[in-house]
Write a structure and sequence with these properties.
The protein is an alpha/beta fold. Helix content is about 30%, strand content about 20%. It contains 14 helices and 21 strands. A seven-stranded mixed beta sheet has the order 7-6-17-18-19-16-20, with helices on both faces. A hairpin with a 2-residue loop joins β12 and β13 (about 265-270). α1 (about 10-20) runs parallel beside α14 (about 495-510), α2 packs parallel to α14 (about 495-510) and α4 packs across α7. The radius of gyration is 22 Å and the shape is globular.
Length: about 525
């Protein structure tokens, strides 16, 4: 029985902890916050409940496998999962709206033809066919296996882009296209392009620079569906935490790790803020690469030939600005669970998010509106809980400072004590944009809570092939024996499903050895 110390209680860290405990190891988790779940957060007040991190689950098979492998109770015995249908409603800048059915390619084709005109569905369907090719080429190396030592081969673009006419009429394949380029080249409708690009934006990717392989994002959603647990995504974190406890994983909250201890050339334990020391045979770090470097007192966790975190790219990755709305009046029957209201000016939005300036919110940004039909989200059927979110730069006047003057953050996902003028103006813009999804929204607001990102708090996206490997994540193995990295900022990237796979990969490496190549 090995002693394993886990830093952080995010979804990837808890997934690894549960699997390692079942394998017979003694596992202890040290979390500096007062609760578990990482980015999977929930804000509750006066009988209303709001997901303030991810709002939907894709690839539920990841957690079904986790719960089967860690106990006799399947996932559905502890979490009530339901498919969201329609998967999403999209309201475009010109006022056109379309409802996309869940996990129905034929249904999506028909819906797009009806809303956007004949041929729109076929163009989207043909695009998804090419996205499926990219998925088939990258699924195992980017989701089911540890990052390859020869990761450079994953820098090749897997998306089979259509040939483009070059000089003198000659046709040449496009091998390094961005998502925005294939949207313009293949979809031939600015609304379809906005639909495609919104999937990238939801993960903090700039569609003008992210590789064409990001096409797998809508493919995954429309193939495997969108799922919602009763009680919100936080219910999934609750169930995973309870599974860890049932498998004798120990948790220490308010326990901030300040150093990873090395002895005899390998990870040997932790030092805590309160002066305590923890001995361990293996350390699993569920923290961002920059913090892991700090815990190693400036030493690099990965070698010169490994995928290295891009500090500047991480700094420019957007965070999530959230507004929780408690509404008077019942949720209308048939209301869409999720509506994406697209930006009035996509170029202005991208310039605000990814430009060289300090970062700001454009006049009418892309806003995601979540209004679940969940009795646990509201005090009674005469009220409704609605969550609005938009991508913002995680610095500047919309972010919450980590220290110094201004409102204090009591816990991740907590609302600001008092809105700043900039935060209030941003919240007003989100509410105004969301009226395209909920007419008369402002008149129904009972109260609102603004939940900005903390300074530097970005949303990590899943790892993507192409672009020379710039969108890969650092490996779960580090250069230090006995030290492993888990969670959204490491392979295979962010999002609840990818975090769950990260935990599975770390557990597999520890249990089976560093030459393990993944389960069949």
């Amino acid at each position: 029985m090995a002693r394993i110390a886990v830093i952080g209680a995010g979804m990837g860290a808890m997934a690894a902890a549960a699997r390692l405990a079942v394998a017979g190891h003694r596992v202890a988790v040290y979390e500096r916050e007062a609760t578990y779940g990482g980015a999977v957060r929930r804000f509750e007040r006066a009988g209303f409940g709001f997901d303030t991190g991810p709002g939907l689950l894709h690839l539920p098979a990841v957690y079904r496998d986790l719960f089967v492998k860690t106990g006799r109770e399947p996932l559905e015995s502890v979490v009530e999962l339901s498919q969201v249908d329609p998967a999403a409603r999209h309201v475009f800048a010109d006022g056109t709206a379309v409802c996309l059915p869940n996990a129905s390619r034929a249904g999506v084709l028909a819906a797009l033809d009806d809303a956007l005109g004949a041929g729109a569905g076929e163009r989207w369907s043909a695009f998804l066919g090419r996205a499926r090719d990219a998925w088939d080429r990258t699924r195992r190396p980017l989701l089911e296996e540890p990052l390859w030592p020869d990761w450079q081969v994953l820098g090749r673009e897997p998306y089979p882009a259509l040939p483009r006419r070059g000089l003198f009429g000659r046709r040449k394949p496009v091998t390094d296209a961005t998502l925005a380029e294939i949207a313009a080249h293949e979809l031939a409708d600015p609304r379809l392009a906005a639909l495609l690009e919104s999937y990238a934006l939801a993960y903090g990717f700039d569609p003008r620079t992210v590789p064409a392989s990001a096409a797998i994002l809508p493919y995954m959603e429309q193939t495997f569906g969108s799922w919602y647990p009763r009680g919100g995504i936080r219910a999934l974190a609750d169930a995973l935490y309870e599974r860890c406890l049932a498998r004798k994983v120990e948790f220490a909250f308010g326990a901030e790790v300040t150093r990873v201890v090395e002895a005899d050339g390998r990870a040997a334990g932790l030092e805590l803020r309160d002066g305590g020391c923890v001995e361990a045979d293996t350390v699993v770090a569920g923290v961002a690469p920059g913090r892991l470097t700090a815990l190693l007192k400036g030493a690099e966790p990965w070698g010169a030939d490994d995928v290295r975190p891009d500090a500047d790219a991480a700094r420019r990755t957007p965070g999530r600005f959230t507004v929780a709305l408690a509404l008077r009046g019942p949720r209308p029957a048939g209301a869409a669970h999720r509506t994406v209201v697209h930006a009035a000016d996509r170029a202005a939005e991208l310039a605000a998010l990814f430009g060289a300036g300090p970062g700001a919110l454009c006049d009418r940004p892309t806003v995601t509106v979540l209004r679940p039909d969940d009795p646990e989200s509201r005090p009674d059927d005469g009220h409704e809980a609605v969550t609005l979110s938009a991508a913002v730069a995680p610095y500047g006047d919309l972010a919450l400072p980590l220290a110094g003057p201004g409102p204090a953050r009591t816990a991740p996902g907590s609302p600001v004590a008092e809105e700043t003028a900039a935060q209030a103006a941003a919240a007003d813009r989100l509410v105004a944009a969301a009226e395209a999804a909920i007419p008369g929204l402002r008149e129904r607001v009972l109260w609102r809570a603004v939940l900005p990102p903390a300074e530097g708090e970005s949303v990590p996206g899943p790892a993507l092939a192409g672009a020379g490997g710039r969108f890969l994540r650092p490996a779960n193995r580090t250069r230090i024996p006995g030290l492993y990295a888990v969670g959204g900022w490491t392979h295979p990237g962010g999002g609840p499903a990818h975090a769950g796979m990260s935990g599975a990969l770390v557990a597999g490496l520890i249990v089976n050895g560093d030459d393990w190549r993944g389960s069949e």
